[in-house]
Design goal:
The chain is globular and about 35 Å long. The chain has five helices and five strands. The chain starts with a strand and ends with a helix. It has one domain (2-139): Dehydroquinase, class II (Rossmann fold). It has a five-stranded parallel sheet with strand order 2-1-3-4-5, with helices on both faces. The chain has 142 residues and is an alpha/beta fold. Bound molecules: 1,3,4-trihydroxy-5-OXO-cyclohexanecarboxylic acid (DQA). 1,3,4-trihydroxy-5-OXO-cyclohexanecarboxylic acid (DQA) is lined by residues 11, 72, 74-75, 77, 98-100, 102, 109.
């Protein structure tokens, strides 16, 4: 059974409430069970924090024993060298996801600090971005 952690960064605890025209009407907690049912062959856990250092602590905690991390780093995507360094230090692959198509939004969202450390990037498919990332990790060879 593959162990996969889904991580959401700042303001993603407000999914369903926050800018629904961009991020939709569903909370992540209401979406998670359907994702877990879709991949019975994986053990999918979830962590959210608004704090950069807590995201790093969590990644260091699981990144040497889990099979993969799906990371939506929110706005830290565009700013955080610390997250990039952390991702590069881990043993397990990290997939960067975004709910919105960051490339069709403001220019400051076009650049990601973390992409170069990630196995791949998925953006613009709403909550299905997480599903595509889990699919990639489930199919990834050990
Ligand atoms: C986001 C895109 C980021 O630019 C933004 O800061 C977020 C959410 C997304 O999922 O589309 O918080 O990562």
């Amino acid at each position: 059974m593959k162990k996969i952690l889904i991580m959401n960064g700042p303001n993603l605890n407000l999914l369903g409430v926050r800018e629904p025209g961009i991020y939709g009407n569903n909370s992540f907690d209401s979406y998670l069970p359907s994702l877990q049912n879709r991949f019975p062959e994986a053990e999918i856990s979830y962590y959210q924090s608004n704090i950069e250092g807590e995201l790093i602590n969590k990644m260091q905690e699981v990144g040497f024993s889990y099979d993969g991390i799906v990371l939506n780093a929110g706005a830290y995507t565009h700013t955080s060298v610390a997250l990039l360094d952390c991702i590069r230090s881990l043993k397990c692959p990290v997939i960067e996801v975004h709910i919105s198509n960051v490339h069709s939004r403001e220019e400051f969202r076009h650049h990601s600090m973390i992409s170069s450390g990630c196995l791949g990037v998925i953006a613009g498919f709403g909550l299905r971005s997480y599903e595509f990332a889990v699919m990639a990790l489930v199919e990834e060879k050990k």
